[in-house]
Specification:
This protein is mainly beta. The chain contains 4 helices and 16 strands. Helices cover 12% and strands 32% of the residues. It is globular and about 55 Å long.
Length: 328
């Protein structure tokens, strides 16, 4: 029994939503599932819905699925760049319920998801024309090459351009079928421990590092790209994990980030798909990981959850492309 980390995929990121049947636009869009509609407006498709009425929640899996996408029509378990939205029944009727978007205390930890677009000025204008809000427009601040839209639950969606911003200034058209779900960002306390975990334990490669000493933080971009040498152009990719390390947090014994699964809840987990669940979990056990849920725990015998150094949950699921090597 063996597992091959080169076959692993950064499958999805999960966010809790208040109500998948309402709109985040100032002028409501006419659609039965308007919370999902925001991400569909960004070019994503609903590739899978898993109702769980007995457990009182539904799961919505969205991804870029056009003919020009990276993994068109691939099954959900054998692709990267999926966004999972979890709706717990009843939150839509609770006027006091609001998911924590991860960018303010006491829920600070998760930062954002990010999409890559073709022509960023036109893409941002299209989002604004639909009535959606922005945390940061292109014209705000000093960083004129990125924007942050807000989804209906105020999660931040970073927008970056696949092309040079100065080259797309006068272009008025944008094609959402060319967009990609590029990365998910979480903040980490100790970059050394986190990099060791994601590289040595989960088998990711360090794709790119961006150091900003004048601003007091570094960004580390990781993913499942064999042979990566820390000099990869990550914009064309999906399934990238961005770790943000703010200098000095590792020296503060009392400092910690919020993992999104205790109150206030919001972000839920990252997920990797593996070639063989038994072998992968055995390898993780031998690496000495901290478990949130082993395969043998509870009623769900087909998923496991490990904890990263900051307590973020990492779901482990079977890639059924390799199902012949596993009983799941």
């Amino acid at each position: 029994m063996a597992t091959d980390t080169s076959k692993y995929k950064f499958n999805h990121s999960m966010l809790r939503v208040k109500d998948p049947h309402r709109s985040g636009a100032s002028q409501p869009l006419i659609d039965a599932q308007d919370d999902v509609k925001f991400y569909e407006h960004l070019g994503m498709s609903l590739i899978q819905k898993i109702p769980q009425p007995d457990a009182k929640f539904d799961l919505y899996f969205l991804a870029y699925d056009s003919p020009t996408a990276i993994s068109p029509k691939a099954p959900w378990y054998d692709r990267q760049g999926i966004l999972e939205l979890t709706h717990n029944y009843g939150t839509e009727n609770d006027p006091n319920y609001k998911p924590a978007n991860g960018n303010s205390d006491p829920g600070r930890g998760f930062g954002h998801v990010c999409i890559t677009v073709d022509n960023i000025q036109a893409a941002c204008q299209r989002i604004e024309d639909a009535g959606y809000k922005f945390q940061k427009k292109l014209s705000d601040g000093r960083m004129r090459h990125v924007a942050f839209a807000l989804d209906p639950d105020d999660y931040w969606v970073e927008i970056v351009s696949d092309n040079k911003v100065e080259d797309t200034e006068g272009i008025k058209e944008t094609d959402p079928s060319t967009y990609r779900f590029n990365h998910t960002m979480v903040r980490v306390k100790d970059h050394t421990k986190s990099l060791q975990f994601y590289q040595d334990i989960l088998g990711m490669s360090l794709l790119r590092t961006s150091e900003s000493p004048s601003s007091g933080f570094n960004l580390y971009f990781l993913g499942y790209v064999p042979g990566a040498d820390n000099d990869v152009n990550t914009k064309p990719l999906e399934g990238v994990l961005e770790l943000t390390w703010n200098y000095g947090t590792e020296k503060d014994e009392g400092f910690h980030y919020h993992n999104g699964n205790s109150e206030p809840q919001g972000f839920g987990h990252l997920a990797i798909s593996v070639d063989d669940m038994d072998a992968a979990c055995q390898r993780l056990e031998e690496k000495g990981v901290s478990w949130k849920k082993r395969l043998t725990d509870g009623r769900m015998k087909n998923v496991a959850f490990v904890l990263d150094p900051d307590g973020y949950w990492i779901e482990v699921v079977q890639n059924e492309r390799y199902k012949a090597t596993s009983k799941y």
